[in-house]
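Our working data are protein records whose layout never changes between entries. An example says more than a description, so a record of this kind follows.
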Amino acid sequence: MKFIETLKNIWKIDELKDRIIMTFSLLLVYRFGAQVVLPGIDSSKLASFSENFEGGGIGFVLNAFTGGAFSNASVFALGIMPYISASIVVQLMGIAIPYLQKLQKEGASGQKKINQITRWLTIGICLIQAPSYLLSLGTLGVPSDAYLMPDNMNLFLVSSTIILVTGCVFAMWLGEKITDKGIGNGISLLIMVGIIATLPQAFVQEFAARVTGTGGVMLVLVELLVWFVVILLCIMLVMAVRKIPVQYARRAASGGYEKNEQGSRQFIPLKLNASGVMPIIFAQAIMFVPAALGQLDTSWATTVQTAFGDIFGFWYNLVFALLIIIFTYFYTAITVPTNKMADDLKRNGGFIAGIRPGTETADYLDKIMSQITLPGSIFLALVAIFPAFVSLMGVTQQWALFYGGTSLLIMVGVAIDTMQQINSYLLNRHYDGLIKTGKNRKAVA
């Protein structure tokens, strides 16, 4: 009843209702575009092409992130991933390039320029990825008779490149509009919707395999229970923080001089997993290298491909887990500015009990971050390789990939972020209602 009442309260707030409707509308546009095949390709002859992305591996990952657009040869085949790549590059370049460091300190105006740089870099990445995707269509399984203009392939490549770049830019625009006019982070929502789009098909395949094979419906229920537990553990990983108690000395003027009053106590929340899913994304990019080396016609390349070609294999997951732990430390070090935190704390008159302000505080925060990053990185690595353990229990590969990895963490993180934004609207309206009439009021335009 409380949940139903919450849904009613959401619908009573006009601003929140309009934002949710806007979000769903733009997401529907994105999903519609994922089904539109590139001009010049016969969609009825892409069955064998789509089947190549159903057995796991890099193709399945790319297809999942684009919501099936990659295997549909869609106008949104590149999805939003070029923008994600550009954002990562700009963020890493901000460590070494003084100009970007200066922009980061300029507030909103600097962030606007950084966003513009990211957009132009996104177009540059698209201009590289689009022709590569089009030239690899034949290798990936698109039959030669699927092309409607086989005698004019140059025109097809040029026009399709323009369409793919435009599709990525349009998807980027949709994401930014969702962030501004909708609810939640638009780019993250586009990725999450793409992942969820492949979830029903994976579950139906697993259900059919269990019903017709061994286990039956009861085993499916057990798998759902395990999946629910894994989701709860991912929520704990995303939400877990270490609270560092901080005291602020308050001063009050009295008789021409100031005297200390009792200080107020607050906390610095240090997240257990401050790097989010970025270590998995970085590690996944490195693990794509063996697949590329496997294309070389040499004995050692074949050996590497055999050892690392199976994403559920031992060596793949061992190296994958080690890379995640390493990248977690690396990304945490560059995204959690302990020195800046210590300086801000000192400037505001705050201190950690028993620790001197300044350098000692920065060293103390850095030590705490190192201590909590180790269990956080191990937990993150276990979540990332958990699909390999699930597949050993007879679960189909498509369904096993939803038991961990980037997909599950993105779904959990985005869902939590969106729910927190909705909850903030509800709390604000409830607070406003208590002052006025004690009930939720319609939002004032």
Summary: The radius of gyration is 25 Å.
